[in-house]
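Researcher: Please predict.
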Amino acid sequence: MTTSEDPRRTMALTPPEHDTPPVLAPPEPVPPVRRRPRARPRALVGLVLALLVTATGSSCTTPSGGDGGPDGDGRAHAPRTLRVLASSELADMAPVLAEARTATGVTVRLTYTGTLDAVERIASGEADTAYDAIWLSSNASLRIRPDTARRITGETPVMTSPVAVGVRPEAVARLGWDPAKVTWPELHRAVAAGSLTYGMTDPKRSHSGFSALVSVASGLSGAQSALTGRDVARATPRLKEFFRGQKLTSGSSGWLASAYARRPDVDALVNYESVLLSAPGRLTVIRPADGVVTADYPLTLLTSARPEAKEAAGRLTTYLRTPEAQRRITTTTLRRPVVPGVEPAAALARDPRRELPFPGSRAVADGLLDAYDNTLRRPSRTVYVLDTSGSMAGDRLDRLKAALVELTGDFRDREEVTLMPFGSTVKRDGVRTHTVDPAAPGSALDAIAADARGLTASGGTAIYSSLQEAYRFLGRTPGDTFTSVVLMTDGENTDGDPAAAFDRFYGSLPAAQRHTPVFPILFGDSDRGALDHIAELTGGRLFDATKGPLDAAFEEIRGYQ
């Protein structure tokens, strides 16, 4: 997640435009359900790193040429080609890197990825053969993991961006705030009183989300040094109140901004300052006066880097820290310069802020993320609308079963999960709903896995009628949850209502129900255009599993639920 957003894209130092999904894995037998440990393995791997960024995996490439050795993708690299595993948000550095190539002769080949994926590649040693360096928003989480800290060296901060809160100007006026003086406790009081709502990325899949979580925990605990478990426990009652005001969650900053634009009832976004200043619409950017967590975007060599790559990295970082390049960076990306004497872009406030303490150990980071998932945030409620038509028989149905069973290891405490299989109509005898009880999560997880294993293929494909049933189901018992619909289909609509009928149905829903997005999964022979339309209409996002593992698509959607 990927965050997370995992499909990879290749281009020539310009922002990514389209996804090229990964290679489809061969089918595997449906695994037995795994009892979810209280700390959740997935959380432990990436969370602490919260390094997940909004992330879509992609490759940003300039022609290399030359007679160098092979890259991780099999292509030759030139002696002055620097192969970098990078946060996808660094796509906005394309014009700066193009100028750096002219000035230094160093070609930067960026492979964009979600931070969780990056961390796993570094920890496993996979990154050692394919890359020379990494470029994430922060290395703070890497440094508290022995399996990653020993694989990195030579960190050079290039620019900074603090966590901030972007608030609609009318909300700032209503609350009577002076943006320069607002503190985290003041933000908490406004949220607890029901006067402020906001959106934030998922801390497990976005580094901006994790940085925001750490900022809030530090600000509300009063911690003066590295966050401890005791600090988190002390702040938990106020953290619960604060996260009740979170109305939007996302696996990526880009989708979060789009969702926010559709939600006039949401007052604010919590993200990096540079993201907020670039978001559509006008936001008043508040850097809380009592401190922030700041991303410093260090270009970092791997200890395994080739000697010529180390020389190229030295040339590049020297150039990127020149006053000329720093001015170009701040005006192009709205991040802050790290070189003294270079003024930030005009849109950036000049008054300094204290740096809030980061967790001092992996255990504290894991604990904070686990608390967020299972205690602090609003629970999730999802209907999985699953194509079990005749065309799904065989390997396709086996893949679906395996993906759903695998997914049970990632469901959160208090989460409501509904499986709604369909063929020519919704198969009502197969509709099952389970809620994960924090006291005994295994019961619901086992039941979901059993329901998944019991799916059978038959009938036609009634996509639009089945989606209407999902919305009707959710509308019967509305609640204060993150609500979504996941649609998995392997073909085109053949039965039931046509697309136009669903459009009319969706348009007739109450405003609150129209806030429920559909996340379609492209699979088998499904119609990309039709699924894109469903996602666009409902404010969701299309996930592509036609050339990648189906379980990866389901997992990536978790950041949006």
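Model: Residues 498 and 504 are 10 Å apart (CA to CA).
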